[in-house]
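Incident log, structure service

09:12 report received: a user says their structure output differs between two submissions of the same chain.
09:20 pulled the input from the user's history:
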Amino acid sequence: MTMQVRSEGTAGNLRAVRFLAVWSVGVACTFTPPPPLPGEEGAGAAPGRAVGGAGEAGGGGGPVSGEHAEGPAAPAEGEGGKAPGDPAGGRFGLDEAFSDLSGEGDPWVLIHVDRGTLVCALFDEAAPVAVANFVGLARGLRPHFDLEKETWVRAPFYDGTIFHRVIPGFMIQGGDRTGTGTKGAGYTIPDEIRPDLRFDRPGRLAMAGRGPNTGSSQFFITLAPASHLDGHHTIFGQCTEASVALADDMAMVPRGPDDRPKDPEKIRSIEVVLAKAAPNPSSGGQEAP
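09:34 re-ran on a clean worker, output below:
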């Protein structure tokens, strides 16, 4: 279902014009985790595989934040992450995100890509805001700002998007409908940093951002421990071992500037299920036997 929101009255029109102007003009910022530290680069790569190196622009690094000529800047979200015209008013909770889900157990997400399915447990208790945001966008329940239609819509956000940045032995990143790595969903959410959740293992599902409290729609999955990310990014899930292997395979591709794959992996669709154990992608999201 697509929902349009139109401002009424002079004040509303002025706010809408101001929002579009800030969204469409200026310097773009990249939503991204920092590059791996020298000692961590390639830590998770399989033996015998090259990490970066000649012929792969960007090597194993990539920008922490950068200026890009293509595309408009991210919007000015306003105080508390609220964006002018946002139908949700900056608030969207787990009850809304999980509405009408059947089954019992914990929430899991199945990210169907060209090569297979990434299966990740969601930490709804540790990071309720990030989980509600991700699930709401994936299911088309959380409104986002559509740049082409220039209005707020409710529609599956991630379907058809790409993993626009991959670094072997470090992480894969997606969640930008423009594919440039510079855009979000038109609003921000606060960080949910917990000292007991660290980037101490591969498979962490986390929010990308441009700094503190700037998460929106972009996310990344780690391929190895990355302690330099601790305290900087919200961890809101953990992917299975098989999913890490798939993500690692997705990262081992030729890349161009900004670690962009020359043939990016596409997200076909995202499922969210409730299950007591890791769902089996080959059985329609049912629990593995």
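09:41 both user submissions now match this output. Likely a transient worker issue. Closing.
09:42 reviewer note: The first helix runs from residue 9 to 24. The radius of gyration is 18 Å.
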